[in-house]
Write a structure and sequence with these properties.
Elements: E1 3-7, E2 10-13, E3 18-25, H1 29-32, E4 35-41, E5 48-54, E6 60-62, E7 70-75, E8 80-85, E9 94-101, E10 117-118, E11 122-127
Parallel strand pairs: 2-11
Antiparallel strand pairs: 1-3, 3-8, 4-5, 4-9, 5-6, 7-8, 9-10, 9-11
């Protein structure tokens, strides 16, 4: 059984950086998590895509708000997914979730319904 554990959130000021991590336990990471993504959910809002990455890290996809500020990456040897967030803004305040998809897709999955596994979430709060 695959389990994902998010970490790295916290309280920061606008303009600061944070790196989120997502550690996976279970079967071979690079095989079972063909796609991995970060989502976020702010109070009163739906969960939305932040970024997606494929098995080898050769394909990524970002939400418009994340382009140029956030970078998704993965280390298959360490069974870990990362999200580097720079120049954070108060609007980035949300609970951030990592997610994994085991099946093959020819395109980056950006819908919550595409994913099979979820982390518990980590809170990111950006003060102005």
């Amino acid at each position: 059984q695959v389990q994902l554990a998010d970490s790295g959130g916290g309280l920061v000021q606008a303009g600061d950086s944070l790196r989120l991590s997502c550690s996976a336990s279970g079967p071979t990471f690079s095989v079972t998590m063909r796609w991995m993504g970060w989502f976020r959910q702010a109070p009163g809002k739906e969960r939305e895509i932040v970024a997606v990455i494929n098995t080898l890290g050769t394909t990524t996809s970002y939400a418009d708000f994340a382009k140029g500020r956030f970078t998704i990456s993965r280390d298959n040897a360490r069974n870990t997914l990362y999200l580097q967030m720079n120049t954070l803004k108060p609007d980035d305040t949300a609970v951030y979730y990592c997610a994994g998809k085991s099946g093959r897709l020819p395109y980056p999955p950006r819908d919550t319904r595409d994913y099979d596994y979820w982390g518990q979430g980590t809170q990111v709060t950006v003060s102005s």
